[in-house]
């Protein structure tokens, strides 16, 4: 997070001296495919044992889709509002009555991010390079499936974080462009969940699940690479 904050300050300072021509359109709507390098799922973040509390499952190579609407305030400043669906699961094990059950474990996150972008001086009519940053709220669910039982999320604490980004648009038509972008962010949020049923059927056998709610935490600290198409209007 300290590295992201320093990059954000540098980009904010640089934006004071940047100037470039805008593409002549007020709005740009992009549809994107994303790849995020790393994330972590903490299954016991409230444990009194420091080692258990810090233990996590690394969930890497995350593919997602996003949408972003950008509005040109001036020739140098562009505001953006975007959202994304990030989901990642893995095969985990849960021990019940001396037996190990294979379960589907993971998370789903929906970020809502507000950004400010600045065009760099060497942008042209077809090639628009930008840099900027902003802040976002992150809402998520813990995903867990055991046999015929899932979990319900009792409480969710929205995560908050800042991000910085750099990228470019290449106009292939007056109203259409291709976008490539790299984003640095580190959102973190906590969840409180509970099994939908204490009785689970697994491979023809019945097991009893804990009735108490349990906590989990997600930290998405990887770099996100974006490739998308932009429609200007």
Description:
The protein is mostly beta strands and 233 residues long. The protein has one domain: Porin. Helices cover 8% and strands 64% of the residues. The chain has an 8-stranded antiparallel barrel with strand order 1-4-5-6-7-9-10-15. A 5-stranded antiparallel sheet has the order 3-2-14-11-8, with no helix packed on it. Strands 12-13 form a two-stranded antiparallel sheet. Strand 6 and strand 7 form a beta hairpin. It starts with a helix and ends with a strand.
The helix/strand series, from N terminus to C terminus, equals: HEEHEEEEEEEEEEEEE
- Main sheet specs: 8 strands, antiparallel, barrel
CATH class type: Mainly Beta
The percent range for strand residues is over 45%
CATH architecture grouping: Beta Barrel
Number of helices: 2
- Structural class designation: mainly beta
Strands of the biggest beta sheet: in what spatial order? Answer: 1-4-5-6-7-9-10-15
For this structure, the CATH topology is Porin
Proportion of helical residues: under 10%
Flag low-confidence runs: 10-22
Report Rg.
Answer: 21 Å
Envelope shape: elongated
Mean pLDDT value: 88
Count of distinct structural domains: 1
* Amino- and carboxy-terminal Cα gap: 36 Å
Number of strands: 15
């Amino acid at each position: 997070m300290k590295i992201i904050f320093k990059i954000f300050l540098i980009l904010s300072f640089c934006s004071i001296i940047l100037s470039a021509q805008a593409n002549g359109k007020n709005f740009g709507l992009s549809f994107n495919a994303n790849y995020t390098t790393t994330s972590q799922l903490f299954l016991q973040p409230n444990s009194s044992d420091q080692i258990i509390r810090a233990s996590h499952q690394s969930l890497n190579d995350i593919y997602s889709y996003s949408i972003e609407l950008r509005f040109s305030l001036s020739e140098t400043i562009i505001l953006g509002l975007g959202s994304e669906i990030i989901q990642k699961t893995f095969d985990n094990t849960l021990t019940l009555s001396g037996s190990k059950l294979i379960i589907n474990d993971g998370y789903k996150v929906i970020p809502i991010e507000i950004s400010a972008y600045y065009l760099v001086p060497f942008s042209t009519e077809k090639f628009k390079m930008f840099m900027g940053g902003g802040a976002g709220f992150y809402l998520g669910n813990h995903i867990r499936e055991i046999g015929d039982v899932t979990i319900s999320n009792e409480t969710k604490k929205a995560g908050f974080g800042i991000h910085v980004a750099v990228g470019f648009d290449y106009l292939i038509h007056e109203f259409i462009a291709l976008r490539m972008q790299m984003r640095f962010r580190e959102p973190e949020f906590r969840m409180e969940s509970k099994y939908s049923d204490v009785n689970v059927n697994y491979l023809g056998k019945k097991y009893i699940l804990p009735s108490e709610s349990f906590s989990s935490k997600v930290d998405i600290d990887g770099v996100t690479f974006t490739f998308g198409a932009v429609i200007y209007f």
